[in-house]
Amino acid sequence: MGNIFAVANSSVLAFPNRPLDPAKLPVKLDLGGLTALVETHPGHSGTDLIVRVPEQNVVYTGDLLFNHLYPVTFDEQATVSGWRSTLKTFLSYDKDTIFIPGHGQVGGRDAVQLSADLFDDVAAQAEKMYKSGIPAEDAADQYVVPDKYKDVTIFAWNLSIGPTILKLYKEWGAK
Known about the structure:
This protein has helices at 2-10, 80-91, 109-131, 136-142, 161-174, and strands at residues 27-30, 35-40, 49-53, 58-66, 98-103. The protein is α+β, with helices and mostly antiparallel strands and 175 residues long. The chain is 37% helix and 17% strand. Helix 2 packs antiparallel against helix 3 and helix 3 crosses helix 5 (161-174). The radius of gyration is 18 Å and the shape is globular. The longest helix is centred in the C-terminal third of the chain and has 23 residues, at 109-131. A hairpin with a 4-residue loop joins strand 1 and strand 2 (35-40).
């Protein structure tokens, strides 16, 4: 970690001299012998970007990764299915990739897997409620945190778990 910090701290970065058009991503940025890829992925909001440095196996995920926290999904453009797909993409990267999250500590695949597992658990419980006819607003309050996730931080129920369940219900109702 010290080496990564030293490289980042000693680098002079020139930002693109124009707005980045999401339709034209990914874009490669030359960082003076090191290439960074700016990519867009669905999930937390409608404007999620990541910066990957493949040569270093480093990914700056922004808010597409909340390490050891339940993801926050209150943004209108947040998409649970898209975010879950993005996490699968992250898990497809090299096994030694280091992920620098928008929230929480720097982590590896285990951090991404935990986030995917949290989504899976919320979705599994929500699906049971959906199939049994429990209204979305009630289901949003009825999620039960499993013992194995008791130490995972919930920033605020009405910013994370509640909206995740409401969005899942909406996605399922659209099918």
